[in-house]
Specification:
By secondary structure, this protein is mainly alpha-helical. The chain has five helices and four strands. The N and C termini lie far apart (about 50 Å). The structure holds zinc ion.
């Protein structure tokens, strides 16, 4: 196992230093968002983008932008991550507003649209305003 992880005496053959750790952490966090999104979609059996997807996108892209700015100093790499935080932030704001506007079913906990009168999951009558 140690031989598999160590190439030329380096872990995974990578010349590790602070910015390499930041860059690889960014890669791992950014990649984790696909696993989170896939899991949420499989769980609900419909295409779902959970709030965690946008947080992982934001944190991962900022780590990669830091790596690009302070270590790689590549204009192509910097540009690739320079503006991606804007839609991630916007989606987090919209997600928060949508969540606040939804009603929670007192019977099953399912979240329904604010305008809904009955739970789409179990049919229970939903409270008039806000949630439980
Ligand atoms: Zn319900």
């Amino acid at each position: 196992m140690q031989e598999l992880l160590s190439i030329n005496g380096k872990f995974l053959g990578i010349d590790w230093h602070f910015w390499k750790v930041v860059g690889w952490a960014g890669n791992l966090v950014f990649s984790a968002r696909f696993v989170v999104q896939w899991y949420a979609t499989e769980k609900r059996k419909e295409v779902t983008v959970p709030q965690a997807f946008w947080w992982l996108s934001l944190v991962g892209s900022l780590l990669l932008l830091s790596y690009a700015l302070f270590w790689e100093k590549s204009s192509v790499f910097i540009f690739a991550y320079a503006f991606t935080w804007i839609p991630y932030m916007r989606n987090l704001v919209i997600h928060r507003r949508q969540k606040a506007a939804k009603k929670t079913c007192p019977q099953c906990g399912n979240r329904s649209l604010a305008a809904a009168n009955f739970c789409s999951h179990c049919g229970t009558a939903l409270p008039e305003q806000g949630g439980v």
